[in-house]
Amino acid sequence: MFVRPSPPTPDARFLVEDYEPAYLALYRSGALPRRVDAALAELRDCCACPRNCHVNRLQDKARVCHTGRYARVASAFAHFGEEDCLRGWHGSGTIFFAACNLRCVFCQNWDISQGTAGEECDAAQIAEHMLALQEQGCHNINFVTPEHVAPQVIEAIAAAVPRGLRLPIVYNTSAYDALASLRLLDGLIDIYMPDFKFWHRDSARRLAKAKDYAEHARAAVVEMHRQVGSLRFGPDGLARRGVLVRHLVMPGQEDEASAIFTWLARTVSPDTYLNIMAQYRPQFQVGKQDLKHRYRAIDRRPHPQELTAAYTAARAAGLWRFDERC
Hints:
Elements: H1 23-29, H2 32-44, E1 71-79, H3 84-87, E2 92-97, H4 110-113, E3 119-121, H5 123-136, E4 141-144, H6 150-160, E5 169-173, H7 179-185, E6 191-194, H8 201-208, H9 213-228, E7 232-233, E8 239-248, H10 254-268, E9 273-277, H11 304-317, E10 321-322
Parallel strand pairs: 2-4, 4-5, 5-6, 6-8, 8-9, 9-10
Antiparallel strand pairs: 1-2, 1-3, 7-8
Helix pairs in contact: 2-6, 5-6, 10-11
C-alpha cells in the first residue's frame, strides 16, 4: 500500500500552485511541428547523443545504440519504484526504451539496455502508450533511457498532445546527452532526472566505455537546469517541474561522489534536489565469473559507511534537498 507523499519542503519557493505541462504553450503557439522537423533532421546524420555516429537513421542505419528510425519500447507500465514525488499513489507512467548509448559493465537492466529487446514503435504507437498510462491514473510520463531516441521522444509528444495528453513529462537519463538534443527538448520536458554516475575519465572509460562522460554530463545538467530550474512541487507533494539528480553510490568511489556534489552545489545550485541511491549490486559483466578479476573493486554491495559518507559529502558541499522515502 503506497501512501500519499507529503510535500518535501514547506518553502514557498519550491511550490507550484497553478501548473500546466510545459509543452502546452508550444502546442498553442503552433511550434510543435517545426520542433519535430528539427528533431528528425538530427537522425539524418546522427549526433543525437555524444557518440556522434553520423549514420542516417532515417534510412534505418544504426551503430552504437542499435536503434534505427524507430525507438524500441521494452515496457510501459505504472512504476511504483520511483521517487515518492514521482510515483505518488497511482504510479509513474514509465516507458522503458531498449538499448543505450552507454556500456555500463554493472547495468542492472542489461537485458534491455544492451540488446534489442521490445518492439519498434512509431510516434503514434508511443503516443498510445502515453495516453494509456494517463488513462490508468499515472501522475507523469517517465521516459527511461531516452538519450539515443530524443528525436523520437519529441515526435511522440507532438503526436500525443493533440489527442489529450496533459501529464508532466519526465526525462529519465544517464546524463550522457547531447546539448543539441536537449535544446530541442526545451519547452517539452517538465522534469529532468539525470543520473550523474562518474567524475573521473578513467572510471567512465573502464565502467561505461565513455571516457568523456563527465564533461557531457556536466554540460547536460547545466542545460537542464537552465530550462526548468530547481525541482518544484504541487500542493499534493508531487513533482511538477525542475531537475532531480540521482547518484548511485558505488564501492570505493567516495571521491567521485564528493566531486559531483561539490560541482552541483557550486555550479548548478545548492537547491539541487538529490537522490543518493543505495541499490547498487554486482550485475551484468561484474557478476560474470570469468570477469570478476577485472572488476574486483566493484564486485560487492556498498558498505553502510559509504552511503553515510555520500550524505556527509553532499551536506558538506552545501546541498540540502534530499529524496527520502515515505
